[in-house]
């Protein structure tokens, strides 16, 4: 057996860790069920898996970092669950689309362009917020708050760095001499090319 499609069956409960021992599988589709709990670490043993679809369930916890060892994996979908943590960004995980992870407010990482420091603001899970009539307005206000915080942090960092360099140049004669010597050396090196 190389393909197993158990989607849309209303299965509930945790993912059986024994599924990780089906090493001959090339495709496993468990989408659109009511599965809960974490993604088992035993899934790293699905060494021939090419497609793994876990979307539209109630899975929680982190995406196991061991899944990056599945070098044959070309399709991975974990959208619309309650997953959290940082998405592994290595090997074939770098090739997956943003849509593979959407609908998991606790996830962060390069693939979904969400910074790790903003994860504490996502206290509600996707499934809880989908029943909220004001969900769109709350999501918009959180996005605006995140942008304001992010750009305020960037501006403050720039100001501290800029005035820190100016203070060293103004009040530290030794630092000022070293800075201008390094600048002169850099300019001469560029001109001698």
TrEMBL record:
Keyword annotations of the record: Glycoprotein, Leucine-rich repeat, Membrane, Repeat, Transmembrane, Transmembrane helix
One Gene Ontology term, aspect cellular component: membrane
Annotated transmembrane regions: 148-171
Membrane topology label: Single-pass membrane protein
Entry superkingdom: Eukaryota
Gene3D superfamilies according to UniProt: Ribonuclease Inhibitor
Cell compartment(s), UniProt: Membrane
InterPro entries: Leu-rich_rpt, LRR_dom_sf, RLP_Defense_Trigger
Protein family (similarity comment): Belongs to the RLP family.
Protein's recorded name: Uncharacterized protein
Gene source species: Acorus gramineus
UniProt lineage: Eukaryota, Viridiplantae, Streptophyta, Embryophyta, Tracheophyta
